[in-house]
Each structure stands twice: as structure tokens, then as C-alpha cells.
Amino acid sequence: MNGSCSKGNSVCASYSARSVRGRRAAGLAAVALTSGLVAAGVLAAAGPAAADGTPQSQGGATATMSGLKTYGAAVLHDESGDHQISAGLFEMAVDGGGMLQTYCVDIHNPTQKDAKYQETPWSGTSLGANKNAGKIRWILNHSYPQVNDLAALAAKAGVKNLTEQDAATGTQVAIWRYSDGARVDAADARAEKLADYLHSSARDLAEPKASLSLDPPAVSGHPGRRLGPVTVRTDANSVTVVPPVDAGGVRIVGKDGKPVTSARNGSRLYFDVPKTSAAGADGASPAPGDAAGSAELTVQASTTVPVGRAFTSDSRSQTQILAGSSESTVSATAVATWADKGAIPALSAQKDCAEGALDIRVTNKGDQPYTFELMGTGHSVPAGRTRTIAVPLQEDQAYDFTLTGPDGRGQRFTGVLDCKTQGAAIGTKTQTLGEPVPAPAKAGAVPDGTNLAETGGTDTTPLIAAIGLSLLVLGATALSIVRKKKTADH
Predict the structure, then answer these.
(1) Burial of 139 (0-12, 13-18, 19+ CB in 10 A)
(2) CA separation (Å) from 467 to 25, 47, 82, 416?
(3) For residue 45, how many other CB atoms are within 10 A of its CB?
(4) What are the tens digits of pLDDT across the range 237-289?
(5) Burial class of residue 224 (count of CB atoms within 10 Å of its CB; 0-12, 13-18, 19+)
(6) What is the distance between the alpha carbons of residues 406 and 48, in angstroms, rounded to a whole number?
(7) β-bridge partners, 359
(8) Distance CA 89, CA 171 (A)
(9) Could you tell me the pTM of the whole model?
(10) Which residues make beta-bridge pairs with 488?
């Protein structure tokens, strides 16, 4: 669907398709620019394909974008003029059950229908470096849909007869002024007055806690001991503990050593690893003193996700912020790694948008240093020490690499660094292929046959043209070489 378009608006529908093609072309361009890294097998900027791996997450809800549901018109002002776009409330379907309502905090990028989203800390989004992020949370708590008494909301804003569309539009416009620093107004006078009230009244609030997480997400040690603890962090009343599958006798226990099947906020869980355990060793019995392996622990719960949690997608679909949640399924996973001797690393990763990097956290519980190489640089974590290695990445750069553990199996890290509200791959002030320009669109009913919801976006036609021109030049050069060769042969 395309929330920016009215039914029958062919110009707007063509913009939707153009935005999708442009984003894909941008991903291909990023691949070409970083092919040297791919060849080295260190850090693969592989475009959308990287999302096919196993992304690292901090736990919480995962959901699929349904589209823009309640919205109206807004006008974005920039250097190229005024552009009418849609502004309002999205809906997402939670994996395992539940619904989320969200607003966009990324006005210049399109929102792709059916994009997969993951609950994410603010530090992994543009909000991490935004000093006004807390004011956005205040707006969410004091407006629609958290405040569903529209008469009361209208009275505070000094307007009458506020509709759901007005409320959603005004709320989104106020958020954009803080999330993107955008010069944007609601087209409707009532929605605009609400936006002004929310924008001027907003106060700073702290980031909400994750709906469910495990801390730390990775532990390591020697077999024959309890590895951990892993602490449960959640606002749910209780969580279900799912033990490892085919883990060679590994059990999940509490501090007292007794197996646990449920936990709550603050519970401390341990991996009880038998002395000769070697999970995943194809059924072969390990020799005593030569055990190495790994296992996963998963916890699940049903709860409402806290308002203000961010949601991101590795498909570069617009970053969202939570405005409302039904009772929803949430989960988190932790990994344990063990070995008798040598390096025994526990590996985890987290995006750091303030620094433009992926932070790799390594805790080595072994008796030898853990050494590895990333982006041509060697690293070493001494025995008994913890280090965080910052892997610098460019905006919109996909990454896909594997660090190997003591059992020879690797921990794979995949994803996309999507930290800015104007992506580097689709044209920013550091690029020469053109500035991102939201296309004009009319607000109204959702058109039939479209599959993209947008509340802003970028026209990447110059990028496509540049790529096409480059291919044309390469083709002409190749043809010239062939003709010269044939002439020489004759």
C-alpha cells in the first residue's frame, strides 16, 4: 500500500515503485563500493541479502509491517520547495501474536510493506545521538493513541472536533520536528494546532526498558560447571524458559542448581554443562578432557511493549517508534560456549549509532588469548579479560562476518548500519548523485494494487541514471576493445 497516495493517483503510484527501485539500486551501489572487503572475506557489504543471515538482536518483539492506517496530509518544506506527504499511525503484526502501533522517526526514507522489524535500543538508531529523543517519548505518552479521549486532547490543544486522523497527523508532525529536525506542518488547521501544542509542551523522558532481554546475551567457561549467570530483564509477570535442544545434557538451572522452566524480572539463569558435554558433535561421544561446544537458551513471554521502544528493519525500511501495543509475544536468546582448554570466547554485538560502529563484545574465560581479525586488523583478548571492539561502518553499510569459537563453529553477525534519517547510500551532502527529495503526494484513501506505505521518501532517479550511465560506458568500452582485437586479427 502507499499511504501517501489517493485512489487513482497514478503519479503517486509511480513514485512508490521508483522509491523501491532506488533503494535496491542504492544497495547494489554499496556492494560495488565495498567489494574489496567482500573479497577479503572480512566484512561483506552485501546489500539486502545480508538480512538472510541471523541478525543479532537485544531481544523483545519482532513484527511485520502492515502499513499506514490512520493518517492525513502534511507539508514538508526544504531547499527544493514544499512537498505534500502523508503523516500518521502505522500498524505492525507481532510474530507469535499481537499488534503494534507506531510512528515514523525517519521522514526521508520509505516504509516497505511486509518489512521485518525488531525491537531495538535507541543506541542502535538515530535516536541514540538525538538530544530530543526523550521529548518524542513525552509526545507519545501525551497524545493519540495513548490518549484516546479526543475531546480532552482537543481541549488541551485549543481546538474543537479533533478526529482520529487529525490526532494521528498532528502527533506525527510533532515527532518529525524532533526526530528529523524537519520543517513540516500539518495541512489541516486542527492537526497543525495539535502539533504545535505537543511540540512546545514536550519534556525530556528517559528511554523505556526493553520488553524482554537477557543480560549478558553470551557467556562462556569450562564444562563441568555452571556458566552464567544470565539475568532476565522484562516487564512481563513471568517468562517461559525454553531449554537447549540436543545440547548433550546441558540444563538450564537456577542459583541452587535446580532446573527451571519459568522465570521473572531479575531471575538469574545458568547453563549447567556436564564435564564431557560437546553439543552439536554429530552424536559422537567426546573424549574426557576434550569437550567443547555451545548451546542456546530462549525465554518467551506475553506482555505489552513499552511505549517509546524503537523498531528497526535490516531492509532499510523507515525506523519506527512505538505508540501503542496489545498483549504481544516477546522473546530473547542467550548463548553459552565452553571448552576444556584454550581460548573460550563469549561473543555478542550491538550497534552504536552515535559512533557509527558495530560494537563486538568479547569475554574470554579460557586460559589462552583469543585472537581474530576484522577489516584487516588483528585483535587479541587475553585470558580472563573482556574487551569491546568497535568496527567502524558507513551509513547504510551491510555487514556479514563470522567469528570462530573453540569448537570450530562460528558466531555469525549480520545486519545493516542504518543510523541516520538521511541515508548515505541514497544521497546526502557528502554524495554527488543528488539530494534526497520527498515526492509530492496527495493524502486520502489507500490506492488499490500498491504495496508500499510511505510517510516521506527519496527520489533516487539520479542514482539510477548514474548507475545506468556507468554500465553504458563499460559496455561501450568492452565493445571497442573487441572491435580493435578483431581488426588486429584480420
Answers:
(1) buried
(2) 8, 16, 28, 22
(3) 25
(4) 999 999 888 777 899 999 999 999 999 999 999 999 998 755 544 444 444 44
(5) middle
(6) 30
(7) 350, 390
(8) 9
(9) 0.75
(10) none
Rounded CA separation 111/268 (Å): 39
**Distance between CA atoms of 268 and 136, rounded to whole angstroms?**
33
Q: How far apart are CA 210 and CA 264, in angstroms?
A: 14
- The span from the CA of 283 to the CA of 269, in Å, is 26
Chain CA centroid to CA 477, Å: 41
- 83: CB partners within 8 A, 6+ apart: 75, 76, 77, 437, 438, 439, 440, 441
pLDDT, position 181: 95
- Angle among Cα 294, 295, 300 to the nearest 5 degrees reads 155
Longest dimension (CA), the chain: 88
* pLDDT tens readout for residues 102-151: 999 999 888 998 999 999 999 999 999 999 999 999 999 999 999 999 99
Per DSSP bridges, beta strands 239-242 and 218-221 are: unpaired
Is it true that the peptide bond before 145 is cis, omega within 30 degrees of 0?
Answer: yes
How far is Cα 454 from Cα 65, in angstroms, rounded to an integer?
Answer: 12
Amino acid at 221: G
pLDDT in tens, 215-238: 999 999 999 999 999 999 999 999
Residues 343 and 366: beta-carbon distance below 8 Å: yes
Give just the sign of the alpha carbon dihedral 330, 62, 335, 356: negative
Q: Are 191 and 198 in contact (CB under 8 A)?
A: no
Alpha-carbon span 298 to 59, nearest angstrom: 10
